[in-house]
Here is the input.
Amino acid sequence: MNGTEGDKTYNVTEIANFTVTLNISGKTVYLQTNMSGWILQSGITPLYNYTQLNQKGIFNVTGYFLGDENYTESSQTYFVSVVDEESPRYSSLGQNSTWIGVGKAILLFANWSDNFDLDYAWLETNETRNWENKTAIKINLTQGQTWSNFTWQNSSVPAGWVIGWRVYANDSSGNENKTDLMFFFVNASEMWVFSTNGTVISSSAVGDINDDSSIDVVFGSFDKNVYALNGSDGRKIWNFSTNGMISSSPALASITSSNYLDIFIGSYDYNLYALNGSNGRKIWNFSTGGKICSSPAIVDVNKDNFLDVVFGSDDGKVYALNGSNGNLIWSFQTNGKVVSSPAVVNLTVDGYPIVFIGSYDYNLYALNGSDGSKIWNFSAQEKIESSPAVDDLDNDGDLEVVFGSYDNKVYVLDANSGEEIWNYTTGNWITASPVILDLQGEKKVVIGSHDSYVYCFNSDGSLNWTFKVPTNGRAPYLPSVADLNLDGVNDVVIGATDGRVYILDGRDGSLIWSYNIGQYIYTSPALVDLNGDGNPDLALGSTNKNEYVLDPPSWPTFGGNERRTRIFDNSPPDLLFFDVIREGGRVKIVSLWKEKFSNLAFAIVEENSTGLPLVNRINLRGMIDWVNYSFLDNGVYYGIKVFDEYGNSKEVSGFVESETKDRLPPTWSTQAQHLQFNYSKNQVYLLNLSWFDESGVEEVIIEHNFTGEFLNESMEISGNFYSYSVKDLPAGTYVWRSYARDVFGNWNSTPYFTLEVLKKNPEIEFSSKEEVVYPGHVDVKCVLKDGDDDAILKLIRNGDEIEIGKIVSDEEVLRSGLWQYSCIYPETQNYTQLELTKIVEVRKGVPELNLKVEYEKNSCPAQVKITAYENNSGDEDISYRLYSTDLIGEGSYLEYVESLRAGIYSFTYNSSEGENWTSNSISKMIIINDSLPPENLLFNKKLVEKEGLKIYSLWQENCSSLAYGIIRENSTGEFKTNKVKMSGSLDWVNYTIPEKDIKSREGCVMFLGFICLKRIFFEVEAFDNYSNSAKKSDDILLILIFPIQINLFRR
Here is the structure.
């Protein structure tokens, strides 16, 4: 099987090479397997088969020989495990928008591929602040269904949330992958817009004014009308016309009827109006001496148990009216217009409420609620239009008053005495009213200024944070406070003159989201759930004549509370329906509740069905909602207390007697008492069993030690079938058991079952060169392809550990010889030990020798420079020698300079054999030519009596050797030549012309018969070994007297 004998595991996309070999040639062998679609293979041994795998499972592969007349049959079977260990991969990942409005839909998508098949894809998001699976879809590679498209829509997610998401996909083998994280932003979405014929700077009041179980929105406009709109869709309920523009904000309270709310609002026609909330008709009006910009407060100021209306007027007065009939209770005259709206609180339990209000006469007044008499006043340096807020800022039991002024300052005063506690100067005048922000018990003062900043102060006057309107728009009006993004922390909502609503994090003032209306906003947003979806919505007006709604029992501040809803609600919720239902051993209490004027908030349910007191909170939505709760039929005391959003509550309680009792515990059955698997990454292990009970199984849990510690978790249910899946378990033996409880609290448990995950063989890629010539680098590499994440390989060389890691290698230069490498995967949590071995032979290298001979070719003698060296990091056991005819020197680097005469010279540089090197030698031969003749040093002649004429010459050869000399002379009248052998670099050419030749008559010019005039010419030519020659010549003139023979006796 791919070159190895034995069982083998393949990946589903591999090509399997099955080879059937018989030890007898020429025989027919067969190959068979139980893979689907397999066709029997046959052929002469060896039989080769290459199969592209395309199915998973465990298959037997059999090679066999049927036998013949000489041989018996033979066969061999191995098992092939074809697995898929590759996870799906995604390519495209995206979304059709980066942000959406509240309640809107967004498309999230990813495209998947896999080496074999796909199974499911599912979307995971974190909108609950935990990562949770939302939905799953079937995907199929073979049918081209590779896109996983999901539509996300959740109206319960408020504006300001960033939603993270990712898509998971798996294949049928349980391999799983997930995409990178993606994000989108949820912003405010416009619910509705209502247009008037004038600017809207009147802040909205919200409540159910007409007893239709729907929250309504009431406000005034510069078109002189008061409008009442349905809060869920902006539909007009009614409008009431006055004779002047309206900037005053309405207040709501149930005074003249218990079934609907009354509306109280001022007008520029000098009147304060009381209107019937059910139809918009006037109940009464009260006339003042000036325009009414001040917004009324609703409170019992004189403690007569009737609600009163307190407000200011441009005639400089503060008025307190009876809420039922509009009769004047009292008035207080200031020295300036009163645009500020009152805050009314009790400073003591037994005292009368105190009215706090500012005036254009630079003063803030504290007035006795019983008669309107002044208690104290505080003088600022400019007009006071800001409406005060009263609260115990530092939690010391004493109240403080906070307000702003046209002198650019924020003031905090002692509410009892009017003494200044601290002030802070902003960059422009302040007309906005402060709001008190409660951050987990710590009180902060938030206020806007015309310098474009929103300020948040600590209780001691130190600055906590600021927010600058990015467009330099002003924040002239009143901030509101509520937890708009449902993160448990109050947020600050403020409108600005740049036409935007800003939602700020109460902790640090950072921007959560904003919404652009496009026109100045001079109103304070009212925050309430208008459409019953559980999220607070924003109602506000603008100078573009529109009222906008966006989806996000004192009167201590403008608007009555920090949400600026401008309603006085002290009516508790009503119980409309109540029933006790028994179902299968359980008791279910069903109750329907209705809130008169505002929204339901939550219910607290207390019961003791388990024998212990239990308390549960159920969050409610809208004005009508159900409170349903179930428990065991064991005889139960219960109490249900329902609260509205203003803290009003009603309670119902009782005892439910038990009617049935089951004492038999559930029973179980399973086929999974001992499970055994081979370890595989991302493997999903499914545990299942069945529980049965006549009364019904209430709860099933699994106790297991899959995480190393015993944990209890719930099991998934399908009928009587319960399952639990665990993924990517490490190798080991685990125990688990299941517990079940029926509806009557009877428990039963299974014995411990085992789940054994066996260790797997790791996959290692081990490569090396079999042979390396010194000093080449060995190239040994071992790569971990499949093993535990924390596993490391060890590379061993001849017993020594040389490296550890996921990838280990050796590229060293090693001495010659055989080297054994072992790549070892030590046994780890999920994989067995594996050791692979390779032998690397390092053969001796041939050393690189260099011999360089330099000389002048046309010079003789020639200066010869010889450089001999080796280029190897040679071993110390190598000797290097330079030879010519004799040893010149020894060493790995030699330089030798010599002046050489003409000749043929051979130089040899050799090395001896060493541990890592063979012997080697290199030779160079040079020829030095001689082109210069010998040099004559001496040339002379001498007549020697009885010997003759001696000619002698001394010659020197500077490069080569002297060879011979040629003497030419004509002593006898003709030239004769004689040769003299020469040698060495310095030698004589000597020759004697015999006396007889000199004295011979030959060559004479005779005079008088006896006088011989003889001129002897002679020349000496010296030759060197290269036939170069030089001549030297001379002559000698001789006068010879030959004797005369006189015959004296001749006559």
In short: The chain has a mean pLDDT of 86. The first strand starts at residue 8 and ends at 11. Residues 578-657 form one domain.
